[in-house]
Amino acid sequence: MTRIRMILTAVALLTCVPLAPAQDDPPEPVKTTTQTCGAYTLKLEENGFGDPDDRVSVLRGADVVATVTDTMVSVDWCRDVTGDGVPEVLLAGFSGGAHCCFTHTLYSLTTPARRLLTAFSAHSDTLDVRQLNGGGPLELVGADWRFAYGYGMSFAESAPLPVVYSYLPVTGGAPRYVENTRAYPGFLQTFAGRMNDRTEPFSGGMLVDYATRVITGQPGEADTWARTQPAPYAAWLGNYGPDIRHALGDFGVWDWPTRAGAAPDAPRTVLGGSFSAPGTREALALIGGTDPAPATGTPLSGGQASTGTLALYRPQGSGIMAGPALQTVPVRSDQGGYLDSAWWPVFTVRRATGRDDVVVRDARSGSLRFTTHRVSVDTLSPVTDDPLALAATLLGDLSNVARQVASSYARPTPPRTAAQRSEIQRRIDAALARATPWAALTGSALNLPRLGNFVVGAVEMTVDTAERAQVTATADIGEADADTDSEYISGTRHTLTIDLTRSGGRWAVTRWTLTPRTGELDQP
């Protein structure tokens, strides 16, 4: 409403004189352009930066065979990338943020048209076409922005990892483009090598270099390299190294379930590791389905209910093979592909055997536990009398205290009833009863009744022998105070070190300590 019209409206109200209703501004005209790609027409409808969304359609005659809508859309390119003589078209959608988010969809314009890839590209506006393996279908190179804004970086300081999509066979279906970055270690190393100006390094480039060494190098190589870097990067990478290594757990194996026949858009969580034997590369994935979820366990927030299936995925020849179902649990998922579950594997931990065990986060009862499991091709076996299992129990008990204490500071609408407040206090008391015995085994100052933030970032074993073990974890730890008025309680980074010994035929925690972690970008 203009300033003049506001004045006239005010006068009309004061004098009781009716004023003609304001007319809505006419909608902006739709700009429509078309182009031909193979036997199809691409129709682009642009409505400006606002409602309604822009639309790009793939038409065969008058029939719309595919559509992408977003705040802004575009046709990135039309060319034959699979080598079958039929062109593919890459369509892009942009959500309209300052620099995010882009989604890319690739269609093969065969008859009928076939979707070959949907890639969430975050801050990168296209997929580049490259030939990386010397022949055959072309590769598509995008960007993996998992570390954007991470570990104290601004976006300007952040940088992506490259991600490579290859045209590969899919069990039970036609070939499609899938994420296959680990097949190109030389390309990753070249990308990382060009990232930094060695006379003036920056944090994002340093992180990409470190991450590339984790992905392509030998164990410990990345940390050895990080210690030789200038300040403050050496200390910063030392601080966040365990979290970075953990965050790379699904890199290069995210699409293994797709290659084994899972629906390409099925929501999932994926952990990579050597589960069934040392020296293997496998993926343990929880995949959401479409069946109604059982009416058991803790309700999950939002999304579509289904049953999630955990299975081990392994290379077989040039393909990927899915093992049998190891576990099924209720899950919820949304259109963005995110999967929410009260039970899911969160950490892989390398053992002295060279195999990885799995720590599972289990909140199905309403309380939080960390349980430990050993994975084979066809079984998921709980691990009990074991140092990692005992350390995971300690971490879970402390995490559960924080979960219950923090919930007491939430301010729901309408306010909680007296019965609900009583139930929250009962849960806090039960959590404290489980965690209090651990307090006798540490000299670290920790006010358990006030513990409102205990978030584990990574878990590793530094000692793993028949009689002695040591487990370390990074954790954000924070306590509520008199000014706390929200369940979001800030924390500071610590290393939690758990020493264990085997005595009398059983494992026991002998001592655990908390040490503040140092090394931030703003520290000299």
Tell me what the structure shows.
The protein has about 525 residues and is α+β, with helices and mostly antiparallel strands. Helix content is about 20%, strand content about 40%. It has eight helices and 26 strands. Strands 13, 14, 15, 16, 17 and 18 form a six-stranded antiparallel β-sheet that branches. A four-stranded antiparallel β-sheet has the order 1-2-3-4, with no helix packed on it. The longest helix is centred in the C-terminal third of the chain and has 22 residues, at about 420-440. It is globular. Mean pLDDT is about 90; it is low at about 1-20 and about 290-300.
Quick summary:
The chain has 524 residues and is of the alpha+beta class.
What's the mean pLDDT score? 90
Q: Number of helical segments?
A: 8
Structural class: alpha+beta
Q: What is the share of helical residues?
A: 10-25%
Radius of gyration: 27 Å
Overall geometry comes to globular
How many β strands by DSSP? 26
Characterize the main sheet.
6 strands, antiparallel
The share of residues in extended strands comes to 35-45%
Low-confidence stretches: 1-22, 290-301
Distance between the terminal alpha carbons, to the nearest Å? 53 Å
